[in-house]
Model the fold of this input.
Amino acid sequence: MTERRNDAVRRRRIATNGISLDVVEAGRRSDPVVLLCHGFPESSHSWRHQMRPLADAGYHVLAPDQRGYGTSESPSDVDAYGIDDLGGDLLGLLDDVDAQDAVLVGHDWGALVAWDLARLHPERINSLVAMSVPFTPWPAQPTRVLRHIHGDNFFYILYFQDVGPAEAELGADIRRSLHHILWSASGDNFPLHGVERSVAGTSGWLDELHAPEDLDDLPVWLTSADLDTFVDAFSTNGFFGPVSWYRNFDANYERLAPFPASRMTMPTLFVAGSNDLVIHGHPERIEAMQAELPNLRDIVILDGVGHWTQQEDPDSVNAALLGFLASR
Done:
């Protein structure tokens, strides 16, 4: 019989980088650390299917509710959500558990933070796994590039730039907001995701998403209890913090300019769904990543999976993760 290596999955509060974060934890403190970084609009709960398998495989697993999310602290300044603060929080978690380095795993915005932190502090990241969002060598400020691409069309990242409208819309009915966003980018809703519309407008984002109005109608991978957990996570601090991550795209670009991708020499894995519009129809994004990364070991594309990679197909993601970790 295989010995279970992890204690029960547990939650604790950790002071880090001048704030405090709620962190879900599993495994032995003496084991190598795997740090799981969630995306938008999610929380540590998005890693619920990975915690025990990783701990059972001999890893000390940390999954924070990152700054602005859940009951973790939510600073009131937009500038407090830039990469130095987001990355500093994660480095502080490693310091808390006396880890010199870690396997860094990020999904969606967590992947962006992972790419950036690996460039800024490669000595603290021994291996890197990014899900959904490939490494992107922006040719100019991201919002400038996106405005050039989308013109007068609505695009949610540009909508998020102004303080006020997005968080007000999303916070008006948290359950509906999360239901619609999670449904619309799910693989079984492909290709009707609705992150862009063909005309400019002021009606906001949610009404353009292709999701059923019946909030009990959920994608197969999401239970009502899961949705409840995500809703609870946004009921304390709302959406200002999470949306403010997007408001630092340009500042992060400027901050990272002196740090080339060649600094990321650690073994790297990329995982995404075939029905994720971040990569679907954009082979150039994968090609650019392949050209930039010096130690990209593998690219795993999961058939039929949408944007919520590790939630939609946890078995395949866990197999890819554990296989990658074993092969380094």
In short: The domain at 10-327 is CATH 3.40.50.1820 (Rossmann fold). The CA atoms of residues 161 and 247 lie 5 Å apart.
